[in-house]
Amino acid sequence: MIRKAPIILVLLNLATAFCYPQAFIRTNELFKRQNTGELSISQDQAIDSLISRYIILNKKIRTTAGAQGMHGFRIQIYYSSVRNAREESAKIQADFINKFPDIKSYVQYQEPGWWMIRAGDYRTKTECYKDLILIGKAFPNAYPVPTVINFPGQSK
């Protein structure tokens, strides 16, 4: 029994090292104010735990370009797998950029041969519908699709 005690202690120490808790983020730290005033938040610690989990899970979300992103919507204006779909998508994207220079567009390729053009980075469907009405006049087959988008203010 005495010989087994050190081995058990070492195994317990290793187990606790592997189970070290992840970073815990308090809501007060998220809403710090730089200039003036004081913010006091009274809430259950379970809410802080849920916010921490949400932040950790969202750090794992990546866009097609590999950048960190978030769940949202884009407007799909083209989707095809015909033989010359690549050239068609380039023409349609150029046309889209001419008509809507302030809305960012993305050409994406999806196996086994689908080319698509999606536009915008919208957090909600309601935000998306504002531009969908305008885009729908020039591209009648446009519709919103859920996807991973870039963070607001972040370039590609």
Q: Layout of SSEs?
A:
Blueprint: H1 4-18, H2 27-30, H3 45-58, E1 69-80, H4 85-99, E2 105-110, E3 114-122, H5 125-138, E4 143-150
The overall strand count is 4
Q: Report how far the terminal alpha carbons are from each other.
A: 61 Å
Helix content estimate: 25-40%
Query: By helix and strand content, what is the structural category?
Result: alpha+beta
- Helix tally equals 5
Sheet having the most strands: 4 strands, antiparallel
Query: What Rg is obtained from the alpha carbons, in whole angstroms?
Result: 24 Å
Structure description:
- Strands 2-3-1-4 form a four-stranded antiparallel β-sheet.
- A hairpin with a 3-residue loop joins strand 2 and strand 3.
- It has two domains: 6-58, no CATH class; 69-150, Sporulation related repeat (Alpha-Beta Plaits, 2-Layer Sandwich).
- The protein has five helices and four strands; from the N terminus they run αααβαββαβ.
- The chain is an alpha+beta fold and 156 residues long.
- The model has no long low-confidence stretch (mean pLDDT 80).
- It starts with a helix and ends in a 6-residue tail after the last strand.
Question: How would you sum up this structure in a few lines?
Answer:
The chain is built from five helices and four strands, in the order αααβαββαβ. It is elongated, with a radius of gyration of 24 Å.
Task: Quickly list its features.
elongated, alpha+beta, 4-stranded antiparallel beta sheet, 2 domains, 156 residues, 5 helices, 4 strands, Alpha-Beta Plaits
